[in-house]
Design a protein that fits this description.
Shape: elongated
Distance between the termini: 60 Å
Radius of gyration: 28 Å
Helix content: 40-55%
CATH architecture of the largest domain: Alpha/alpha barrel
Largest sheet: 2 strands, antiparallel
Order of helices and strands: HEEHHHHEEEEHHEEHHHH
């Protein structure tokens, strides 16, 4: 056999070898892709089964009437001592005994967010009000001068709150005096606008101030703020509203009340509204109407919270735009809070489910 023949045969053998190798690799890749597809399908099936495990079973619901509107509720046992937020005081903050006439922003324990000062030009934030109220309620004084200064600072904080409120039929709404585009959407809240979130966190702040100082003004303002929750949206008369009853008869506390439908139904805003009403109920424990509203708002979470869940992924922030929650760990805690308040095992189950989803999403960012 000639050298050319041998060389040619070697090339053919080598080519066949490469061909076989490539086909084997292709076969392995196809099998791997098929395996991954089956694995993904199995994962989605397991997620579906997991989602079924958290579908609520709501029985023994009642219809209640409050302010001529009817809504559904479950008669949860409400433990008034189960949940209590505490606010710390910044380590370097001191009671402004000698500089009470300085700007309020400079003498409070916690500063306003920069965007409120620079972008929105509004010297009031409901959340900052709450954390400052909790701080003032927990700071220790060592003499009468410090206590007197603390009382005056508390009064200034309440005065600032009132500057950013309006009364509508004896109900007091906290107002935002700037336009607010809802991130990642085309929706804009035009000034002045209101929020169930703001009403709730402000109620919580007033509760802490009332507990510490016994200030009747806190109680009166809290009465007026709670009244906003019972001015249900009727789509006709009220300029401002923060609550509505859906077609199935469940109460919603709306963080971003929009002029277009459907409403966002932000879970975080609804629950902060609940926590505010819970704190208000601790101020008015004999008021059965407050208890009825509180139970109704909690029933809404019991009924709908599973719709915010995405097994294995970050939970939804709202039900309209269906954005992923930017604070998923907060959702885990809030469900635990509702369990502590009501003793309802379903909320503990949801807390654990959201926690598991967060852990899986953290390990698989995609």
């Amino acid at each position: 056999m000639s050298k050319n023949h041998i060389k040619k045969n070697k090339i053919i053998v080598f080519t066949l070898f490469i061909f076989v190798i490539l086909n084997v690799q292709l076969f392995i890749c196809q099998k791997q892709l098929l395996f991954e597809q089956k694995l993904e399908k199995l994962s989605k099936h397991l997620e579906y089964i997991d989602s079924l495990s958290t579908i609520p079973s709501l029985d023994k619901l009642e219809w209640a009437t409050y302010n001529t509107f009817k809504f559904k509720l479950k008669r949860y046992r409400i433990d008034l001592n189960a949940f209590n937020e505490t606010g710390g005081v910044p380590r370097n903050w001191k009671i402004p005994v000698h500089n009470l006439n300085d700007s309020l922003e400079s003498i409070l324990p916690y500063n306003l967010p920069d965007n409120y000062i620079k972008k929105y030009k509004q010297l009031f934030s409901p959340w900052t009000f709450k954390v400052n109220a909790m701080a003032l309620a927990n700071v220790q004084t060592s003499n009468q001068a410090e206590y007197d200064a603390l009382v005056k600072l508390k009064d200034k904080l309440i005065d600032r709150l009132l500057e950013f409120t309006v009364l509508q039929s004896q109900a007091r709404y906290i107002i935002y005096k700037f336009d607010f585009p809802i991130s990642d959407t085309d929706s804009v809240l035009l000034k002045p606008w209101v929020s169930g979130f703001a009403q709730g966190v402000t109620l919580s702040g007033l509760y802490h101030l009332y507990q510490r100082f016994g200030d009747e003004r806190c109680l009166k303002i809290a009465d007026e703020i709670f009244a906003t929750f019972t001015q249900y949206r009727n789509k006709q008369n009220n300029k401002f509203w923060v609550t509505e009853i859906d077609e199935s008869g469940y109460i919603w506390i709306e963080e971003y009340p929009l002029n277009s439908e459907p409403q966002p139904k932000v879970l975080n805003g609804h629950i902060h509204g609940i926590l505010g009403v819970y704190d208000y109920y601790r101020m008015r424990p004999d008021n059965k109407d407050v208890l009825t509203f509180l139970q109704g708002a909690i029933t809404t979470v019991h009924r709908y919270v599973n719709q915010y869940r995405k097994p294995g992924h970050i939970n939804l922030y709202d039900l309209r735009f269906k954005k992923s929650d930017y604070g998923p760990q907060r959702t885990i805690l809030q469900q635990k809070y509702l369990f502590d308040i009501t003793g309802q095992p379903y909320f503990l189950k949801m807390s654990e489910s959201f926690k598991k989803d967060f852990a899986r999403a953290s390990n698989n960012p995609n």
